[in-house]
């Protein structure tokens, strides 16, 4: 059963109960009031006709002589009926009260009539001198007719009012639930896969408005989660495909040289030495690729490495010295804060020293292999208040704009030929990005074609105070 049907049924039941209750109370009050009026009439008649009079058969005879009588009179001697005057006309009297014995005197009571006629309201008077009881009764036909007419009126009027109320309530609910129906249609559209669709906004100060706003917020988050999850799956598929491709290349080369040796094509001498050298080189490249993959896997699991205070200035100086010794075809420079004999030369962060060294090595290596010989690679460490900054710059050809957004993706190479002589494994900058994220830092790329590239890393800094003298 729908909510509208339930509400309609509830309103209908409530209206019917309310109308029934009001009708019963009204009928009961009116019936009581009319019965009280009959009692008053009987009391007035007794006061006018029998006050200070003894109860005797003469009174019955006198009343019996009238053409029309409003009241019925019954005279009991003991419990035996000795006299009766019926109400109504002489030739068309009402059915007599059905009273078989003398009732208790001094109280009003209701008595049935003989047959199936209307009842009577009666009052009894007792005369101890004559041991006789006189009962004065008035027919309740007018009261019963009035109550029947009132009941019929209440039933008809109440039914019309209940029907009108239910119809009005149904129309109001139809109008009020239009927004709910629209929200249901919108939700079904979203559930059908249209994540760009949103719930129709409603007035913000209404319950439907707050509900639509909450549903839209939920749909936004759901759409983001689904989109992000799909992007994650696509990245994972690409990662697995790229990893397989990168691993297959050195394995294929190693297998080829082994097969060449097994076929006798690489006998002892220069060919065998060359084959062994290539197998060693491909094996080293394979080991380097596996190491990079393991580093990324460990970073993806958010494994917290040991962190200690690390002096970035010292690590940058070590990285520049190592690069200068390894490559004489480039110029490596170390920049930093201005020389101030009174300033603390250290720039300290709370970090894992090995991972910070890897950041520097990867950034310098990336700048070196993507710039021609003679280019200058500059490493700068500076203090920016709450953060420490590492910037690695070069004056090489720069990165084309179409590659800049994906430069930190795994296995991505800006070199279209994917040359392994200049592109490495394609994981260097991905590792840098993962390490920086693990240290709650940020990484930015600024590159201009034919002008050079600068990669800037910002990390939270920890002051250690001035060095001891």
Automatic annotation (TrEMBL):
Task: Name where it's found.
Answer: Cell membrane
Please write the reaction equations for the catalytic activity of this protein. Answer: ATP + protein L-histidine = ADP + protein N-phospho-L-histidine
**At the top level of its lineage, which domain of life is listed?**
Bacteria
Q: What is its EC number?
A: 2.7.13.3
Gene Ontology terms, MF aspect: ATP binding
Residue ranges of domain Histidine kinase in the record: 242-463
Q: Which UniProt keywords apply?
A: ATP-binding, Kinase, Membrane, Nucleotide-binding, Phosphoprotein, Transferase, Transmembrane, Transmembrane helix, Two-component regulatory system
Q: What class of enzyme is it?
A: transferase
Q: Does the keyword Zinc-finger apply?
A: no
* InterPro entries xrefs: HAMP_dom (IPR003660), HATPase_C_sf (IPR036890), HATPase_dom (IPR003594), His_kinase_dom (IPR005467), HisK_dim/P_dom (IPR003661), HisK_dim/P_sf (IPR036097), Sig_transdc_His_kin-like_C (IPR004358), TCS_sensor_his_kinase (IPR050428)
Pfam families, from UniProt?
HAMP, HATPase_c, HisKA
Q: Which residues cross the membrane?
A: 149-173
Domain (HAMP): give its ranges. Answer: 174-227
- Family annotation (CDD domains): HAMP, HATPase, HisKA
PROSITE patterns cross-referenced by the UniProt entry: HAMP, HIS_KIN
PANTHER family (UniProt xref): SENSOR HISTIDINE KINASE TRCS, SENSOR HISTIDINE KINASE YKOH
Q: What is this protein called?
A: histidine kinase
Recorded source organism is Salininema proteolyticum
């Amino acid at each position: 059963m729908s909510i509208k049907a339930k509400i309609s049924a509830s309103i209908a039941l409530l209206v019917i109960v309310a109308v029934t209750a009001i009708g019963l109370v009204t009928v009961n009050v009116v019936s009581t009031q009319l019965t009280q009026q009959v009692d008053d009439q009987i009391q007035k008649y007794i006061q006018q006709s029998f006050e200070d009079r003894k109860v005797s058969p003469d009174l019955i005879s006198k009343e019996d002589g009238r053409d029309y009588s409003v009241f019925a009179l019954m005279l009991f001697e003991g419990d035996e009926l000795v006299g009766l005057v019926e109400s109504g006309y002489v030739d068309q009297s009402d059915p007599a009260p059905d009273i078989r014995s003398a009732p208790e005197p001094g109280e009003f009571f209701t008595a049935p009539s003989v047959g199936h006629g209307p009842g009577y309201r009666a009052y009894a008077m007792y005369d101890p001198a004559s041991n006789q009881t006189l009962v004065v009764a008035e027919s309740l036909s007018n009261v019963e007719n009035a109550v029947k007419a009132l009941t019929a009126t209440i039933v008809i009027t109440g039914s019309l009012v209940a029907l009108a109320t239910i119809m009005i309530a149904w129309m109001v609910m139809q109008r009020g639930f239009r927004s709910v129906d629209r929200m249901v249609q919108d939700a079904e559209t979203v559930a059908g896969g249209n994540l760009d669709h949103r719930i129709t906004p409603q007035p913000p100060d209404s319950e439907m408005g707050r509900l639509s706003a909450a549903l839209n917020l939920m749909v936004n988050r759901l759409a983001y989660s689904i989109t992000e999850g799909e992007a994650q799956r696509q990245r994972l598929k690409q990662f697995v495909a790229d990893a397989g491709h990168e691993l297959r290349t050195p394995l294929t080369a190693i297998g080829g040289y082994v097969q060449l040796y097994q076929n006798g094509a690489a006998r002892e001498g220069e060919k065998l030495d060359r084959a062994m050298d290539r197998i060693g080189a491909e094996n080293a490249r394979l080991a380097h690729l596996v190491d990079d993959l393991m580093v990324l896997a460990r970073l993806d699991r958010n494994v917290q490495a040991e962190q200690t205070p690390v002096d970035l200035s010292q690590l940058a100086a070590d990285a520049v010295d190592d690069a200068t010794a390894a490559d004489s075809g480039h110029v490596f420079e170390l920049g930093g804060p201005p020389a101030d004999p009174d300033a603390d030369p250290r720039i300290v962060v709370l970090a894992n020293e090995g991972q910070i060294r890897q950041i520097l090595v990867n950034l310098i290596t990336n700048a070196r292999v993507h710039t021609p010989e003679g280019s200058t690679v500059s490493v700068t460490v500076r203090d920016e208040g709450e953060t420490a900054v590492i910037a690695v710059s070069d004056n090489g050809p720069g990165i084309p704009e179409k590659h800049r957004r994906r430069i930190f993706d795994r296995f991505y190479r800006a070199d279209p030929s994917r040359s392994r002589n200049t592109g490495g494994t394609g994981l260097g900058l991905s590792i840098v990005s993962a390490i920086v994220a693990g240290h709650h830092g940020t990484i930015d790329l600024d590159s201009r074609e034919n002008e050079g590239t600068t990669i800037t890393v910002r990390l939270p800094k920890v002051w250690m105070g001035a060095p001891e003298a």
